[in-house]
Amino acid sequence: MKNIIGYVKESGSVSFAERPFQEVDSLVFSYLVYYDLQGIVPPPRERREINVAEAGRQYLKIHGTSQINVNSGLFREMAASVRYRGVLLSDYTEVFRVGSAQFAALRAVLPDGTDVLMVRGADNSLTSWQEAFAISYTETPSQKMALQWMSRLAEKYRDGGMQNIILTGHSKGGNTLLYAAVQGSPQLRSRIRAIYLNDCPGLTPGLYDTNALAELQDRIIRLTPQYSLIGQLFNQNSQDYIVACSTDGINQHEPLFWMVEDDHFVPASARTSDSRKLALGVNRWIASADLEEREAFSRDLFRTLRQARANGARTVPEPKATRNITAYEIGRDPAMDPDGLSEGNSTKKTAQIIMQFLLTSSRPARRAAHKLAGAFYVTNVHALLSKVTQLLH
Residue 1: which pLDDT band, with cuts at 50, 70 and 90? Predict the structure, then answer.
């Protein structure tokens, strides 16, 4: 068994003409947009492209293995492979506004002219997680940026290109692309061949065009690990392809743990019971809390978390070292790895954070917290705190 780095290394001699774009490629490209490509890939204002081989060379020269949240080994293998090295990259854009928006997007052009559009998922910032929470009650800045970015590309390449489009994203990135596809023009939607959602939340009911989503439904490929929380939110009852992973629990959200055999993901028979129960509780809470309560809960919670982080508490797990190691070891147990994804939260510190939240939050936020407790059938602050902490992973 291997992960996507092993897949690129072993399948690198197989061109897209020999093996068309498929599910594992979607996760490879979803990961590609996590790299910091500022100054390497041309921005939207330029009509210029760079191939993966040259972009990889420049990236490794600038960053080496130093960038947080990514494993440079994937880019290195892509740059060396027949399959990926000639793919053209362009229109890279990145925006970060503290407390408001975290957004990055990238366009790739396959040898046959197919456009692959990617948007980055959440990083390790509180801003990105706050925006991820915000999809439960509003249209987010990143969603609107994705729509604007995609619409401008359609105009920019109206005389050639953007006729056969694949959208792919991981986590929040896939959600923003799905929003852009649904809210975009009918002409743009008609050019979309497939939308790959790699453990991505769906769209919040009442905040999108249901007819447009129905139009795209048969082109949506939803992939989730066995333990999936994020990918089960606002699922709209679509079919999932469940992927086996080399680790357990919430760490399965990390793409490098998804297992590949030959040219396909290793299938899993069913989702874990813990995952189903947690997702059921979260969705039950979302259904019971109105938009005002969800907004107040998110606003007050992240205000508290920012204050806690300013006081030295590590409030959101930051998966840096596991993605950074060069010789990625499939099957590594993150719970046993001091540099891995798991981060033991102090029960005392976490309890203090949630107590501060409950003492200082607004009335709608307290109502939402009460409903969250009810959704999980818990009656004490510490149990509620544990559930909120799980949500922040």
Answer: confident
